[in-house]
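yo

u said u wanted the structure for the complex thing, so here. seqs first:
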Amino acid sequence: MLNDKNDNKKVLAITSREEDFARWYTDIVIKAELADYSTVKGCIVYRPLGYAIWEMIQAAFDKMIKDTGHHNVYMPMLIPESLLQKEAEHVEGFAPEVAWVTHGGHEKLAERLCIRPTSETLFCDHYAKVIQSHRDLPKLYNQWCSVCRWEKTTRPFLRGSEFLWQEGHTAHATYDEAQTETLMILDFYEDVCRDFLAIPVIKGQKTDRERFAGAKATYTIESLMNDGKSLQSGTSHNFSDGFARAFDIKFTDKNNEIQYVYQTSWGMSTRTIGALIMVHGDDNGLVLPPKVAPTQVVIIPVASHKEGVMEQCVRLKSQLSSKFRVVLDDSDKSPGWKFAEHEMKGVPLRLELGPKDIESGQVTLVRRDNSEKCTVALDEVSSAIEKLLDKIQSDMLQRAIEHKTANTRVANTYEELAAIAEQHAGFIKAMWCGSGECELNIKNDLGVTARCIPFEQEQLGSKCIACDEAAKQLVIWGKSY
Amino acid sequence: MLNDKNDNKKVLAITSREEDFARWYTDIVIKAELADYSTVKGCIVYRPLGYAIWEMIQAAFDKMIKDTGHHNVYMPMLIPESLLQKEAEHVEGFAPEVAWVTHGGHEKLAERLCIRPTSETLFCDHYAKVIQSHRDLPKLYNQWCSVCRWEKTTRPFLRGSEFLWQEGHTAHATYDEAQTETLMILDFYEDVCRDFLAIPVIKGQKTDRERFAGAKATYTIESLMNDGKSLQSGTSHNFSDGFARAFDIKFTDKNNEIQYVYQTSWGMSTRTIGALIMVHGDDNGLVLPPKVAPTQVVIIPVASHKEGVMEQCVRLKSQLSSKFRVVLDDSDKSPGWKFAEHEMKGVPLRLELGPKDIESGQVTLVRRDNSEKCTVALDEVSSAIEKLLDKIQSDMLQRAIEHKTANTRVANTYEELAAIAEQHAGFIKAMWCGSGECELNIKNDLGVTARCIPFEQEQLGSKCIACDEAAKQLVIWGKSY
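structre next:
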């Protein structure tokens, strides 16, 4: 036996959230074996658990886009410098943070190539070749890949020199079609967060300052972490015909007239794994919603040397595997060690089975999210697990909604805004005139940024909170990752 | 209507195989819309059809490795120069063909980074950190990604500066375990080729000249293209403890002694799509085996303006979609145009339905692989399609086996070897003494290389075909891609 129960805490203990939220976060990343640092600065190793969660998120979103006629493709990872420069705003936004390839083998390249920070330019280049007629539209493409952005300060999953994501790029005959697409994808992002990750989001539009480089309008979903900071968890952009004009992407419409296409792009990344950690995690580690938990149930034999225990565990594993993602931990570690380890890794349900359980024809089930324990008769295990997993999923979402509600405050005056920003983390609602100057003043003065102009608008007053000019919109302010 | 039937040939026509096999190949790549050239030299755009085929191959192999306990992970795409240099033979093999990143944003990097040409060094670096005890073994990791190799001469799918693949990297407690893993994966590669791609392969070991840089033994599956050339379609390497010694990957065994781990690596790439084209394609385009065809059945309405035709097609599509991957082509192109287009794209079965079919309560089914046509009663369509798809799959494999058998020849003397190599493409069996000198002489003299030392050995004679020394093994010779 590797360790007895008393050692568990010592080995697996992590910094508490209260003590140091940032360290608690990286402790979970490392100790739950989600990721590890690599020898390449700012790049992480996605370990089996971290990657498996990403595969679950991929499966959910991939189905949504395929069901609505999108196709996966794959573009080169390298972009010639001249191609990156074609759209002025875009290159300005990305050039400072790209990695440059200058040599192939022993030879210097005639033109530098950057590793894609995002692939608008490549998709546009391709679309200019393959789109001729209205019959070729819409083009609804997506790719799953990694991108590189040379960041100064990096944190696993949240900000990295390389990260995994999907990037969708579509071309349409009209602006309205492009806008419908942009918002439909934003809905999908909300669905993934709410229905799979158990994370409620606020949907809204970014201000001009926060707009994607080259976009006409950028939409976002913002989620609230446990420490009250906001995390931009997915963005969807309407490019109008800006890129089409820069890349000369034209088509012959039904009236035989030449038109520019209207485009969108949208992305969601492994940041969502960071959100999962920071929304649901606790001081014992990760807490995974059942729908994206690579392991939903871990079976842990207690006193496994006693007659019948292992046999029953093996039988249960085989029986439950047709309906759930089940692991039987038959390693030679102590039960207590295993409890702590699978708690750290966020497995939603633990099934304990020992000689006493066998005697009374039952098993013990323990919820990861709230530590609730119950015993269930052997012949009801499967239906009990099904109900419990559903309950955990909905309870987790409910708690996250409550946390978001409790940490969303209203500011009616600048003084209130300042006081809230100083005393509380969380979302702050306040009216805004629409000027970049007020936005920047608030940021510099109070350290909060405009997270979004939410779709759900409220009329909190008629004047901008910063300048007393007429208010245009309600804005959600907050500190962000 | 876009074009009438007479135009089809003109628009979709491709070079015939007999006229120019290489051009026929690239014609299919482009006209079937599998891939397109990009502005980056040697890098292609994987278009929806090409990528969807890759997703089918991924799904098949991913299931095999997950069912046997392997985990997907993701390593950084960049490798510091010093890390690449840790294993001497490995760096020598790859350094001449890597892309070098020298700048991040506006700053010059302290150390150059190469884009991974393969990731042994990164996995080893990680394994050195996470493997301590025999309890940590085996580590059975795989990643799906793209790699860069700066090739001078490139061809879509066959050889590219960037290509998609999977690379498995495992660590074991003993040499025998590593060897078992190496050969199990080679079997999986054979299974993917035979059972999904309908491509028979020869399994064998590579000669020392053709060994992977840093491996103790490299195993391969070789398949035979329609032009008689061989294509290396997957390789699996046993590293013994060579990398473990270079990267200091050690563990404490059950007797509390420190040991080096034994490692394997194995890869299969989008080359397999090239194999699909060149094994099954014909002068009308791509021919896809049903198991990896993204679309298995295309429904084409004939005289779609006539009463009931479109309704019946829509009904059929919805009915068949629960069992097969079905597309209804309801575009405004002519039926003849559609026939040619979906033939080009290799859809295994075409379902035609027009007013006459409705009258007689039937549909027409046309096989892509041999153009056979049959009519089937409406209420038997589903079961007829199921049988036909199975039949197409097995017929395609059977034809490929026959082609391989017909193009595998025996050489008993050097003169025979020379004559066969000059007159025929295909595999040539001949005995070999095991010396690199004979191997090189044959290559330089006759233009054929040792494809592999096949597992299925035969005793064709006692002497090496080149030098008259005692023969050690039978070798398969051939020209290759």
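Chain B touches chain A through 56 residues (CB under 8 Å). The longest strand of chain B covers residues 162-172.
cya
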